[in-house]
Design brief:
This protein is α/β, with parallel strands linked by helices. It has three domains: 83 residues, Winged helix-like DNA-binding domain superfamily/Winged helix DNA-binding domain (Arc Repressor Mutant, subunit A, Orthogonal Bundle); 90 residues, D-Maltodextrin-Binding Protein, domain 2 (3-Layer(aba) Sandwich), CATH 3.40.190.10; 109 residues, 3-Layer(aba) Sandwich (D-Maltodextrin-Binding Protein, domain 2). The protein has eleven helices and eleven strands. Strands 3, 4, 5, 6, 7, 8, 9, 10 and 11 form a nine-stranded mixed beta sheet that branches. Strand 7, helix 7 and strand 8 form a beta-alpha-beta unit. The protein is rod-shaped. The two termini are 46 Å apart.
Length: 303
């Protein structure tokens, strides 16, 4: 028997020649030269232990042995082609990735275009962290860019407070939660609003601890239904919003780092298919940082 035989290629040549009763015509259909077709069929004959064709100067005819094995060869060639077709269709199926709500459309389009260049069709599904987690668990999303603890994050950016004051570099002094204590005789109470993206334990719980230590009430820390709603409270009521510097800039607000603690918004790509995740991150590259509004991340591997 022939060693290291490419059985699929040999059967393809065999079927093509058998169907056309010609080495020349069969080789052309198979996309190979006549000499290559002859070598592959000879190797197949050696592998199977019998002659497949009776050759004459006028025509090529199947032997009785050739006729007996032809149906199986046809099945193998068909199955090999179906395998290739299935692989192509699989690559063309949309890959749903759960991402934070409000990603920049232009950056999302650029990431999708880069993925398409790597034979991936990407669909973004936007939602807050809890929904993204549910979509990943239920299989609605094959991958998710999830808000995670800092030590698990591949992309991260510091969080501070956005507020309605005149912006200047000199004003970006640290903000301490104790500054929210009402002044003597003052009826108003300023609050810090969390947008849904930061309503996660590793952010919310730490802020609640500092809030309690500063002698504030639970009402000093509130959850807004959206980033826009949170920023509206800052503009209308002189409240503060936990936000990134870029988010504060986008709404024309000043930004201050937190003085009580260091909090970051960090992301990791979660996927059950590490190879798929690597294809995506290799294609998107540094654009994922722009998509998430974070600083440049280290090399990402799916969890």
């Amino acid at each position: 028997m022939a060693r290291h035989l490419d059985l699929a290629a040999a059967c393809e040549a065999f079927v093509a020649v058998a169907e056309r009763e010609s080495f020349t015509a069969g080789a052309a259909v198979a996309g190979i030269t006549q000499s290559v077709a002859s070598r592959r069929i000879a190797a197949l004959e050696d592998h199977l232990g019998g002659r497949l064709f009776e050759r004459s100067s006028r025509r090529v005819a199947l032997t009785a042995f050739g006729r007996s094995v032809l149906p199986s060869a046809v099945k193998l060639v068909t199955a090999a082609q179906e395998l290739v077709d299935d692989a192509v269709r699989s690559h063309q199926l949309p890959v749903t990735i759960a991402v934070p709500r409000g990603v920049h459309p232009r950056v999302a389009a650029a990431v999708s275009a880069a993925a398409a260049g790597a034979s991936m069709t990407i669909e973004f599904l936007e939602g807050p962290p809890a929904e993204r987690s549910e979509w990943f668990v239920t299989g609605r999303a094959q991958m998710v860019l999830q808000h995670v603890e800092p030590d698990r994050a591949h992309w991260a950016t510091p969080l501070g407070v956005a507020r309605l004051t005149h912006r200047s570099a000199a004003q970006e002094h640290p903000f301490f939660l104790a500054e929210l204590r009402p002044r003597r005789g003052a009826a108003d109470r300023r609050r810090i609003w969390l947008q849904p993206e930061d309503d996660v334990p590793n952010v919310r719980d730490r802020l609640e601890q500092v809030r309690n230590g500063a002698g504030l009430t639970p009402g000093h820390l509130r959850i807004a239904p959206s980033l826009v709603a949170a920023m509206a409270r800052a503009m209308a009521d002189d409240d503060l919003v936990l936000a990134t510097r870029a988010e504060a800039d986008a709404f024309g607000l000043a930004w201050h780092p937190l003085g009580d603690l260091h909090v970051v918004r960090g992301y990791a790509l979660l996927s059950r298919d590490p190879l798929l995740a690597r294809r995506f991150t290799d294609a998107a590259g540094e654009m994922l940082s722009d998509l998430l509004g974070t600083t440049r991340g280290r090399s990402a591997h799916a969890h």
